[in-house]
Amino acid sequence: MANSTPHAETLNPSAGQRHVYGLIAEFEDAHEIVHAANEVYEEGYRKIDAYTPLPVEGLPESLGFKDMYVPSMMLVAGIFGGLMAFFGLYFLLRYDYPMNIGGRPGFPWPMYLPITFELTVLLSALTGIFGMFAINGLPQPYHPVFDAPNFDRATSDRFFLCIEAKDPQFDLEETRRFLEGLGASRVSEVELKK
Predict the structure, then answer these.
(1) In CATH, what number does 10-66+140-191 get?
(2) Which of 23 and 100 is assigned the larger pLDDT?
(3) How many Å apart are CA 39 and CA 62, to the nearest integer?
């Protein structure tokens, strides 16, 4: 697909300049949006997102979504938390403040396990929460797609697929024709307010 306008982000109609965030297609059925997402991904678009009123099985895979970052961050944080707890207790009870009460061994490692487990889970969970917020750019009280026509129905009975103007393959007219050919009930421009 030819890219006639560079990313098509800025258009110059006679009324003045306006910025386009992308094109959003409205579908009435979950199966239609999964099929459309497959077609869009196969066509080579990568800056795409879907908005649905309920989880749709197969849709994340159709969009090419791979959740690698948050689980990896949680694993690293969990390992760090476990090691920090274990060796922190070891240093504390062995060197910093040793107490031999009742002839206990110098390295009672089973005693370290509950705190090691708790700190592993705590750091992993907190990293998952804050990592998800950071990667998703949350909190985000406003998004350009909120102004798309009929978008308020995305929480009740409509399914939306958006191709962003940042996509290297995005061309306003060609992308519009492509989305209309996928059976969308409506294709609308999403303006980026500056």
Answers:
(1) 3.30.70
(2) 23
(3) 9
Using an 8 Å Cβ cutoff, are 184 and 29 in contact? no
β-pairing verdict for 18-27 and 10-11 = antiparallel
Q: Which amino acid is at 24?
A: I
Domain map (residue ranges) of the chain: 10-66+140-191, 69-136
- Over residues 91-140, the pLDDT tens digits come to 998 888 888 878 878 788 898 999 999 999 999 999 999 999 999 889 98
Contacts (Cβ under 8 Å, ≥6 apart) of 22: 47, 144, 162, 163, 164, 165, 166, 167, 170, 189, 190
Interatomic CA distance for residues 90 and 112, integer angstroms:
8
Residue 150: pLDDT band by 50, 70, 90 thresholds? Answer: very high
Which helix (H) or strand (E) segment is 161 a member of?
strand 159-164
Q: Which amino acid is at 45?
A: Y
Q: Got the DSSP string for 93-124?
A: IIIIS----TT--S--GGGGHHHHHHHHHHHH
